Amino acid sequence: MKNKILVVGSLNIDYVYKFSSSLKFSKSPDVVCCGGKAINQALSLKRNGFDVDMLSALPNDKASRLTKKFLRKNRINLFDVSRGSLQKSDFSRLFVDKFGNYNVKKRCYTTKYFSKTKIKEYLSIRDDIFCIVTFAKMKKEIFSYLIDYCYNKSILSVFTPCPAWKVSTHNKSDFELLKKVGFVFANKFEALRITGTKDIRDAILTLKNMIVTDGDRGVFYFENGDIKHVSALTPKRLVDTTGAGDVFCGFFLSKYFETQDMTLSVKYGVVASTLKLNKLGSSRGVPKKRIAEKYFKKNCKIARL
């Protein structure tokens, strides 16, 4: 029986600075935590009870050791697929304002060191994977290989076009590749950029397997020949929007694997991402399944989700 989800992406350390009442950002970080799309999505899936493996390039530094410890604590299996010797981990400095919005300064280069050969070696000994989650941040030959692998093996592929400039539906080979993906998760900017459109609905009609998150305007997706919309919920307190889209993706997938119901899964993802907004730091805000389920049942009635 296939029961494993594979997430392929970089390991990040987030240094989070909160806007203070003195109209300045703190000099030292308020929160230091693991982050990045791959970790946030892997953690979201794990907290919903799935067996999760993660492939990444692992530097030999203090930050990497902290990330490995975090993943071990959360029982996410980590495998090194780097080529050559890496010296430093990726990091992000996130400056979160009083509205929960953020500016980010990044150092991201470990994805350049992903080895296609080592990824192939890992996949050659696995026969229990039913879903692979990947991103545009790595080299195009890597994520293209993973999407094609899934398509040929009848495995569900999940793709986030970040950064959005790496793929375009106006490029024939890119368009054919994106159509092989099970779910494309994009925010409004990414959706408009990769499709070259000016409206979310036109973007979804161009790429019907794409689910688009648009902040407090909710989520848009295609089902049964029509574009559907689920409204956003208002958080108890808006602290930090970092990673909310990643949490939505992980919790959506978890409910979809359980029910095969698109609308119910979108609603569950919306509830979980709303809970994330209450806490500073991306991975620190990933809710536990028990809390998400309780909040889901409550808000489906109140907000008529």
Q: Describe it for me?
A:
- With 305 residues, the chain is an alpha/beta fold.
- It has a single domain (4-302), classed as UDP-N-acetylmuramoyl-L-alanine:D-glutamate ligase.
- The chain has 10 helices and 13 strands.
- It has helices at 37-46, 62-73, 116-124, 140-153, 172-179, 188-195, 200-206, 244-259, 262-276, 289-302; strands spanning 4-8, 12-18, 31-35, 51-56, 77-80, 90-96, 102-107, 129-135, 156-160, 183-187, 210-213, 219-223, 226-230.
- Strands 5-4-1-8-9-10-11-12-13 form a 9-stranded mixed beta sheet, sandwiched between helices. It has a 4-stranded mixed beta sheet with strand order 3-2-6-7.
- β11 (210-213) and β12 (219-223) form a beta hairpin.
- The radius of gyration is 18 Å and the shape is globular.
- The relative contact order is 0.14.
The first-level CATH class is given as: Alpha Beta
Largest sheet report = 9 strands, mixed
* Order of SSEs: EEEHEHEEEHEHEHEHHEEEHHH
Sum up the overall morphology in one term. Answer: globular
> What is the CATH topology classification name?
UDP-N-acetylmuramoyl-L-alanine:D-glutamate ligase
Strand arrangement in the largest pleated sheet: 5-4-1-8-9-10-11-12-13
What is the architecture at the second tier of CATH? 3-Layer(aba) Sandwich
Total count of strands = 13
Mean pLDDT across all residues, rounded?
91
Radius of gyration: 18 Å
Structural class of the secondary elements? alpha/beta
Query: CATH superfamily membership, which one?
Result: Ribokinase
**How many separate helices?**
10
What's the number of domains?
1
Terminal residue distance: 34 Å
Share of residues in helices: 25-40%
What amount of the residues lies in strands? 15-25%
